[in-house]
Amino acid sequence: MQIKTDYKRPVIVLLNRFNDIRFVGQAIFVLIVLLISWSGVKSIQTNYNLQKQISKAKLWFSRPQRERANSTSASSISAHSQIAFRQ
Q: Average pLDDT of 49-63?
């Protein structure tokens, strides 16, 4: 039993399709749509992370100053330092 290795023909057919301007136009359009979608997903993820940091900072600053000074919680200190250093 011999494995068929006739892969050259489909590759040549695909490369010949790049001679058609309609195919090239569609390929470029799909590439642009994918890039825009990826950029949108990245901006949504960044916005979500920023909203989490803002809510932690609001929670930290909503506590009375006396509690904040006495607090040794690592999460509240790290949330405050992250906000302070990013501004």
A: 90
Number of domains comprising the chain: 1
Higher-pLDDT residue of 67 and 55 is 55
Range of the domain at 55: 8-86
Is the residue at 2 inside a domain?
A: no
In the DSSP assignment, the letter for residue 20 is S
Q: Distance (Å, rounded) from C-alpha 48 to C-alpha 41?
A: 11
In a domain, 1, yes or no: no
d(CA 23, CA 28): 9
Amino acid residing at 50:
L
pLDDT value of residue 39: 94
- Residue whose pair of structure tokens reads 């506590």 in the numeric block: 63
